[in-house]
Amino acid sequence: MVKICCLGAGYVGGPTMAVIALKCPDIQVVVVDITKSRIDAWNSDTLPIYEPGLDEVVKQCRGKNLFFSNDIEKHVSEADIIFVSVNTPTKTRGLGAGKAADLTYWESAARMIADVAKSDKIVVEKSTVPVKTAEAIEKILTHNSNGINFQILSNPEFLAEGTAIQDLFNPDRVLIGGRETPEGQKAVQTLKAVYAHWVPEDQILTTNLWSAELSKLAANAFLAQRISSVNAMSALCEATGANVSEVSYAVGKDSRIGPKFLNASVGFGGSCFQKDILNLVYICECNGLPEVANYWKQVIKINDYQKSRFVNRVVSSMFNTVANKKIAVLGFAFKKDTGDTRETPAIDVCKGLLGDKAKISIYDPQVTEDQIQRDLAMNKFDWDHPVHLQPMSPTTTKQTLDYKKIYDSMQKPAFVFDGRNVVDSEKLREIGFIVYSIGKPLDGWLKDMPAVA
Ligand code: NAI
C-alpha cells in the first residue's frame, strides 16, 4: 500500500487529502500538523474548517484510509510520498518584509523530513511557494540526507475556498512539475498515478519544476487582476452613469475574455491573492524587473483603493461623519461558504468605519465573535503567523432579512451599502432606503454627497 503523509492540516491539506483518500482506497493517507487542536478538531464531529461537502468525505474515509495525527515523525518516516501544505505567509520583518514569502514553516518541515527519513521519499510542494523554492528544499534535504534519495515535485493546489470539494473532484487541471532526470520523471509518474484514480489523464499536466511553481503565482495574479480591472471600471461607472454589471456582461460575452471573475465588489480577500501577488512582485524585483513588479503591484493598489473608496462612500453619504452612528455589517468572511477571514476586505472596511468612530455590529453565520475581535485587533500580515484558530461549528441555515421591518426600526435617512452587489436595490428603494451598489448609477442623494477618494 502506498503511504502518503501530509504536513499541514489546514484549508488545503485537510480537504485535498480527504479527497485523495476517498478516491484512492488503496492508498493510506495521514495528515499531520504541529497544532494539536487542529488535529483534535479533524478527529472530532466539528471539523476545524467549513467547506460544503467536506464533512461527508471525511466521515466516509476517516479511520479507514484517512487519519489525522500529531505523531509527525512516525508518519513522515513511514511515508512514500510527503505533501508539504504548510502556511507560507508574507514576511512581516527582515529582508523583503511586507512582500516576500515567509518560508520558515517550509524550511523547518524540510529539515524535519531530512532528520527522520530512513527510506527514499517523494516530497511534494503543495503550498504556494516562490519560484525556485524546490532548489532550496533540495539543498536542505540532500545536505542532510544520509544517502537517502529525495525527489522534489511541485504540485500547486488550485482549489478555491467555498468550493474546495467540488474543485478537487473536478479540477480544471492538476499540475505536476519535476526534475527532467529519469528519477525526477519517475517521481512525476508516481504522483500522476495517484491523481489518475479520478482525474482524466489529459487534465494532468506535467512540466518542469519552475514552470509549475510559477504557474500557481501567475494564475492567482491573473485572477486577482481581473477583479481589480472590473473594480477600476466600477469607479468610472459611478462617475459616468454607466452600470458595471452591464459593462462586465458585455465585456465577458467576448469569448476571448469570458464571463468569470468579472463581478465588481468591495475588493478581493482571502489568504492567497494579495500574498501571492506581493510575492510575485518581490521575485520580479529580485530578478531586476522593476517594470514587471510595478505592473502587478497595481493590482493590489486598486484593491486597496476599492476598499477605501467604499468606506469613503459610506462616510460621505452620512454627512461626512459616522461617529456614534450604528452600522450593521452583514458578512465578515472573505466570501460565502467559508469561515475564513484572512485578508477579508471586511477587516479594512470595519477598521475604516471604526476609525471614524462608528458603532458597528458584525454578523457572519460562519465566523465566531472571538475570531472577528482577533481580526480587528491584528496588524496587517500578522493574521497568518500566530497559528490561526479557525471558527468553529458553522451554522448552515440560510436566513432571510425582513428589510421593511429593518427599515422601520432605523433612523432616517436609512442607508444600505452593498459591497457585493447582491441585494435587490430596486426593492429596497421602494421601501425607502438610500442604496449604494458598487459601480451602479448613483441615487440622487449619493450624487449630491460625492465621496472624496
Ligand atoms: P493553513 O494555515 O490553513 O494551514 C497550514 C497548516 O500547516 C497549519 O495548520 C499549521 O499549523 C501547519 N504547519 C505549519 N508548519 C508545520 C510543520 N512544520 N509541520 C506540520 N504542520 C505545520 O494554510 P492553507 O490555507 O491550508 O494554505 C497552505 C498553503 O497552500 C499555503 O502556501 C497557501 O498559499 C496554499 N494555498 C492555499 C489555498 C487556500 O485557498 N487557502 C489554495 C491554494 C493554495
UniProtKB/TrEMBL annotation:
Binding locations of NAD(+): 8-13, 33, 38, 86-90, 127-128, 161, 272-275, 342
UDP-glucose/GDP-mannose dehydrogenase C-terminal domain sequence ranges: 328-425
Uppermost EC category: oxidoreductase
Protein name: UDP-glucose 6-dehydrogenase
Stored InterPro entries: 6-PGluconate_DH-like_C_sf, NAD(P)-bd_dom_sf, UDP-Glc/GDP-Man, UDP-Glc/GDP-Man_DH_C, UDP-Glc/GDP-Man_DH_C_sf, UDP-Glc/GDP-Man_DH_dimer, UDP-Glc/GDP-Man_DH_N, UDPglc_DH_euk
Signal peptide: none
SUPFAM superfamilies named among the record's database cross-references: 6-phosphogluconate dehydrogenase C-terminal domain-like, NAD(P)-binding Rossmann-fold domains, UDP-glucose/GDP-mannose dehydrogenase C-terminal domain
Organism: Triticum turgidum subsp. durum
Catalytic activities: UDP-alpha-D-glucose + 2 NAD(+) + H2O = UDP-alpha-D-glucuronate + 2 NADH + 3 H(+)
GO CC annotation, single: nucleus
Pfam families reported for this sequence: UDPG_MGDP_dh (PF00984), UDPG_MGDP_dh_C (PF03720), UDPG_MGDP_dh_N (PF03721)
Keywords: NAD, Oxidoreductase, Phosphoprotein
Keyword Nucleus: no
GO BP terms: glycosaminoglycan biosynthetic process
Keyword Oxidoreductase listed: yes
Domain of life of the organism encoding this protein: Eukaryota
Active site: C272 (nucleophile)
EC nos: 1.1.1.22
Family: Belongs to the UDP-glucose/GDP-mannose dehydrogenase family.
GO molecular function, one term: NAD binding
Pathway(s): Nucleotide-sugar biosynthesis; UDP-alpha-D-glucuronate biosynthesis; UDP-alpha-D-glucuronate from UDP-alpha-D-glucose: step 1/1
Function according to Swiss-Prot or TrEMBL: Involved in the biosynthesis of UDP-glucuronic acid (UDP-GlcA), providing nucleotide sugars for cell-wall polymers.
